[in-house]
Amino acid sequence: MRIPDWTPEAKPQPAELVDAILARRGGQLINLDKALLWSEPLARGWNTYLKAVRTELPTSRKLRELGICTVALLTGARYEYHHHAPDFLAAGGTQAELDALDRVVAADARQASDPALGEVEQLVVRYAAQMTQDVTVDDALFDALRRHFDTTQLVELTSAIATYNMVARFLVALGVSPEE
After folding, report:
1. At what angle do helices 151-174 and 61-75 cross, to 10 degrees?
2. How far apart are CA 125 and CA 127, in angstroms?
3. What is the rounded distance in angstroms from the CA atom of residue 161 to the CA atom of residue 80?
4. pTM
5. Among 2, 6, 110, 117, whose Cα sits 20 to 30 Å from the Cα of 20?
């Protein structure tokens, strides 16, 4: 990491904040937390917001994680992919789909087409790619997504992809690497 790991001795933070992060993480701080805890307001807001995006949205977890994995691969955020590929698999995704994602990202994810990905999965990859690489999403793709998602689902999927673009940029800029 390009900055030192946070420690309570280096920058004391309120115990309730650290405890809330530990509770969300299952009792262990991860390297991302050790960067965020240098700023109390950032760590507090991040913990609340990312918890909602990760665990409280009813829109398909598998499709949200597919969008997140797409962002991670496109931005070079190894840390993000390291944490979210297993979540994609736990949400019902397959290794064949992750392998297909690797292939379409290596080609052009904006045009994602691979027989190992279903129609909706291909749309999600294209959407994440356009949001990540172009910011602007073409109308044809958005119209195709509307045929599969209601408004709430579109907002939640978009939020997950946008959020993890932010996370990727934070991780890559600070050189946060996966835990050993």
Report:
1. 30
2. 5
3. 12
4. 0.94
5. 2
Say which residues have a Cβ less than 8 Å from residue 165's Cβ, sequence separation at least 6. Answer: 71, 75, 131, 132
* DSSP letters for 114-175: -TTS-HHHHHHHHHHHIIIIISS--HHHHHHHHTT--HHHHHHHHHHHHHHHHHHHHHHHHT
| Residue among 121, 122, 105 nearest 113 (CA) | 122
Per-residue pLDDT tens digits of the chain, which is 180 residues long: 999 999 999 999 999 999 999 999 999 999 999 999 999 999 999 999 999 999 999 999 999 999 999 999 999 999 999 999 999 999 999 999 999 999 999 999 999 999 999 999 999 999 999 999 999 999 999 999 999 999 999 999 999 999 999 999 999 999 999 998
Say if CB 164 and CB 79 are below 8 A apart. Answer: no
CB 142 within 8 A of CB 123: no
Alpha carbons 42 and 38: distance in angstroms, whole number = 8
Confirm if 70 and 44 have CB atoms less than 8 A apart.
Answer: no
Residue with tokens 């019902």: 92
